[in-house]
Amino acid sequence: MNNQFIHRRTKLAENLQSGIAVIPTAKEVVRNKDAHFPYRFDSYFHYLTGFGEPESVIVIIGGKTPSSILFCRGKNKEKEIWNGFRHGPEAAKNLLHCDEAYSIDEIDQILPQLIENKDTIYTPLGIDASWDQQIMGWLNQTRSRVREGIAAPEGLIDVRGMLDEMRLFKDPSELDTMRQAAKISAEAHVLAMTATKPGKYEYAIEAEFLYHFKKNGSQFPAYTSIVAGGQNACVLHYIENNAVLNDGDLLLIDAGCELNGYASDITRTFPVNGKFSGPQKAIYELVLAAQSAAIDATSAGNSWQAPHDAATKVLAQGFIDLKLCHGSLDKVLENREYFRYYMHRTGHWLGMDVHDVGNYKIDGEWRALEPGMVLTIEPGCYISSAPDIPEQFWNIGIRIEDDAVVRKDKGCEIITSGAPKTISDIESLMSS
Is 399 in the active site? Predict the structure, then answer.
């Protein structure tokens, strides 16, 4: 087991002081009748353990003698025949280097004892009502023993805020995994471009990159993929992926793989027939210029807002030049006229979750970017048909998205550069 998990638990224990953290993994979810969705662990739990089995809880105790205690499924020969290997408490304890480990069947007996005389319980709150109820049951059980001289925790705090700040800064091992996930995803986008032809269906192109994800060790797509041809690209979270691809349309693909718990997130937009039209070129070059400005602004010491402001200014001026917006740049920015064509932010944190954890503001102010943060940079332009819009721009939806690591020195590292995004590179690839 990698020492990074021990280090994280130790750091969390220090922050807990005399409190106790109780963090469950995700539940298995029924898809239909007795068939389940593919299992994916909870990100917080996995961040602290690297343990992938369901029905598990990690307990971390702070104070003078910090410790880690794991609850997991017990060994069961019959169930292992049907559903696969289980580590069991003893093997899991050794694997994770925990101080103690017990069967999950014992948690109702043991957990109330563990929270005795602790100041505060730290746990994920408000995610799962049944878990909240379970926590309150253990807490009330401890409270009922007050006449025995046992003190129950007085505080109940959501542990996610503490863990979010830890997860926001990626260590070298995390960054290596994210670079590999980005590489696999960039390769998949190349395959999607070369496979795209008029008359094919969106789902056929989706199959190309999903195959590449799995073939190269990815366990899951990092999110539901968007494969949006023509006017479908103007729907920001289009996921039907069932339409035919028409000659003369653009295809927007927003897709990335998850590798060992870490997400990648790439969007590319390209012509179905391999050649951009004049109006498509004009909008595409504008979005690309906006992304370039945002990348230049993604640097340690700059605020989180800086890339968004940089991209928005470029887009707003471009909309004015193309007669999509009217008036001065200051006016278009002030009255948010650009919002009709660009209605989302320029990026988000990226990590174990595709829209990863971490505050964007501190004390009401946009936080400064710092080394080790990972974010997406994804400006776009979405022009639906309307009487007051030149017809040549109708149903053009374009987004260009890359993943960036904030460096110690100036600037950022784009880890998704393997996916072509200049017009010349895209057209050259699709013609080969």
Answer: yes
